[in-house]
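hiii so um. not sure if this is the right channel but i have a protein structure encoded as tokens and i wanna go backwards to a sequence. like what aa goes where. can anyone help
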């Protein structure tokens, strides 16, 4: 346990309270606008004395799934950006493909379970299919565009005799021994995401599952820039996988991801992972030439509706383009970012923070400062204790290594390592073993998932913290736009101390200035309602804005005359004509969560880990923190204002659709 805080009165951040509420929200592309319905007008109570009701903005409500598909269309459209190098445009094709798998594995789950078969659900499938067909066409276009660079994806028939012999040996030595031959009776048990082949004479007789550990795109030895698909090679030598040579047809499926038994604690997680049973199949892709009667066999066995089956030309998994992006010429990728480093911080971060706060905007300002801060704490003999919340930290992580170093040096170190981070459970389980082996205390998992981003250091009589909007992940820290606040402000550090003490005691945190869980909604509503007047102004930046109470409050603020700016990257479930709603999609993934309220000229600015969604506000321990330092507050407002003015990476979101604004002079994705 951390030692108790010294007594002393905390100063509370005062926020003006008003009764009126307000709302604002982004939009869908025209193809996603199917099924959007206007919200019914609220009935007015007759009253001879009541003043005339203020006009309400006509709202269009959109499902989360449709709004997210609209975002993924924006991702797909980046493949046509005239200002992006060729390989960067190709990279977005791979991002789109990864996103679409996530859609069918996770984001579709509620609609799949509750509205499957409805017109709205079929509209989602139609939009997903339209995107898949466009992505298929873009892949073919990219193959032609890559040829002038000397990059060619060849068919096996284009290989020389020697190359065919080499790949025959490769298949026999590396692929066939790790390939499963599956009878058709096992179709209901097929795994999610793997590439399969179907074969047979008349009836479907054999299924082949390729190992997922092997690359889908292979470089051709001795032919610089030459590649061949693994799937195409397998089709060329079907005799290595079947009793006799036979035509092969590709398919793959996606299941709803489930890991309910992991919602307990670390002791139960290994068994939960071992016993994990993926959910129902939500999506099937088959190649265009797949025999009709076999396709129907698969569809029925997997219990799919016809609209959930897509016919596409191979390759069925476009994530394979990542190989070309990684190995292609550097001149066709973005130039390395010139990252700024704060002067004087890294030499002595604690003396620096004794004088003032430091706010950084990643990746334009060095994320390495976060890792350096943790390492400095680990090495400093005056540091007694460290605490950290870790969510998606990856396989290599400088902060995690610093915590291990601190524990080995005899410091009091504890982490809340979230074992329920979807798709990262196994990686985090590995880290938990490493932590425990080094003497780092791994805290028990509370009932709510911990998504906060906080690093606490106690050094003698002083406390220091880092608070952020992004995961402590070195890869994301250099690709995602996020805010980092380093501070020794006692009102903030004491709350972070209380947050960790509560987690260690398995108690709900009680905070004074910071906000966690549903208290984040309360501070947002308070700020919005305080701006519900003609001179009010609200700036909100989130990845997702779907919380009904917040949207309702924004709508009331609109009706009261407030000026609203929304920057919502992915999911926005209410749209209004004439409201400044936008989504930024560009080189970096927009990830910071920020709320700013004019407060009659004395701006209040908050940032944190939480998106404005019921899941985040009610089911997680997030952290939202005020930016108290005036210089840091001005910096955050400046970032928001530049993004509002952006005309290089912007989509304007309205009830009628989404409109791209590219090629302008104002780039909001820069410092």
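sure thing!! here u go:
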């Amino acid at each position: 346990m951390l030692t108790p805080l010294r007594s002393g009165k905390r100063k509370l951040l005062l926020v003006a309270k008003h009764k009126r509420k307000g709302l604002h929200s982004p939009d869908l592309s025209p193809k996603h606008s199917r099924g959007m319905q206007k919200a019914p007008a609220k009935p007015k109570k007759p009253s001879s004395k009541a003043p005339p009701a203020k006009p309400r903005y006509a709202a269009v409500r959109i499902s989360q799934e449709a709004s997210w598909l609209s975002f993924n269309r924006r991702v797909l459209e980046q493949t046509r950006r005239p200002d992006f190098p060729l390989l960067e445009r190709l990279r977005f094709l791979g991002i789109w493909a990864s996103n679409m798998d996530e859609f069918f594995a996770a984001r579709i789950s509620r609609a799949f379970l509750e509205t499957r078969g409805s017109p709205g659900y079929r509209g989602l499938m139609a939009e997903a299919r339209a995107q898949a067909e466009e992505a298929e066409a873009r892949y073919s276009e990219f193959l032609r565009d890559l040829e002038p660079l000397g990059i060619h994806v060849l068919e096996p028939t284009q290989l020389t005799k020697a190359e065919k012999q080499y790949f025959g040996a490769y298949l026999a030595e590396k692929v066939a021994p790790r390939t499963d031959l599956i009878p058709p009776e096992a179709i209901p048990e097929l795994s999610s995401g793997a590439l399969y082949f179907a074969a047979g004479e008349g009836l479907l007789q054999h299924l082949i599952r390729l190992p997922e550990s092997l690359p889908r795109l292979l470089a051709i030895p001795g032919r610089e820039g030459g590649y061949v698909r693994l799937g195409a090679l397998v089709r060329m030598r079907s005799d290595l996988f079947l009793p006799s040579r036979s035509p092969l047809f590709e398919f793959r499926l996606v299941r709803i991801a489930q890991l309910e038994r992991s919602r307990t604690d670390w002791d139960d997680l290994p068994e939960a992972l071992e016993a994990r049973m993926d959910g129902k199949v939500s999506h099937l892709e088959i190649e265009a030439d797949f025999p009709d009667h076999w396709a129907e066999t698969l569809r029925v066995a997997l219990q799919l509706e016809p609209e959930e089956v897509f016919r596409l030309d191979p390759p069925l998994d476009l994530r394979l383009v990542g190989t070309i992006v990684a190995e292609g010429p550097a001149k066709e990728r973005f130039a390395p970012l010139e990252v700024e480093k704060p002067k004087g911080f890294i030499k002595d971060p604690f003396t620096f923070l004794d004088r003032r706060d430091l706010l950084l905007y990643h990746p334009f300002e060095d994320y390495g400062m976060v890792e350096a801060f943790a390492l400095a704490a680990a090495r400093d003999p005056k540091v007694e204790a460290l605490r950290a919340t870790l969510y998606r930290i990856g396989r290599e992580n400088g902060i995690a290594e610093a915590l291990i170093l601190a524990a080995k040096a005899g410091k009091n170190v504890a982490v809340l390592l979230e074992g329920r981070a979807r798709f990262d459970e196994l990686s985090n389980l590995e880290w938990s073993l490493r932590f425990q082996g080094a003497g780092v205390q791994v805290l028990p998992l509370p009932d709510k998932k911990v998504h906060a981003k906080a690093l606490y250091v106690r050094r003698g009589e002083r406390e220091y913290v880092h608070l952020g909007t992004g995961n402590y992940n070195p890869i994301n820290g250099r690709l995602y736009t996020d805010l980092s606040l380093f501070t020794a402000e006692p009102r903030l550090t004491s709350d972070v101390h209380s947050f960790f003490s509560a987690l260690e005691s398995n108690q709900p945190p009680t905070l004074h200035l910071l906000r966690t869980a549903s208290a984040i909604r309360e501070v947002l509503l308070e700020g919005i309602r305080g701006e519900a007047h003609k001179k009010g102004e609200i700036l909100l930046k989130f990845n997702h804005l779907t919380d009904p109470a917040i949207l309702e409050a924004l709508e009331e603020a609109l009706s009261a005359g407030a000026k609203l700016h929304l920057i919502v990257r992915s999911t926005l479930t209410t749209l209004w004509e004439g409201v400044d709603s936008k989504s930024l999609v560009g080189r970096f993934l927009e990830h910071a969560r920020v709320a700013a309220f004019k407060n009659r000229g004395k701006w209040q600015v908050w940032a944190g880990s939480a998106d404005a969604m019921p899941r985040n506000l009610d089911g997680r321990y997030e952290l939202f923190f005020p930016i108290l330092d005036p210089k840091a507050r001005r910096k955050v407002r400046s970032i928001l204002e530049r993004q509002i003015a952006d005309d290089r990476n912007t989509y304007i979101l309205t009830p009628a659709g989404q409109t791209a604004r590219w090629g302008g002079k104002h780039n909001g994705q820069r410092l």
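oh and The chain has three domains: 65-332, 349-505, 514-660.
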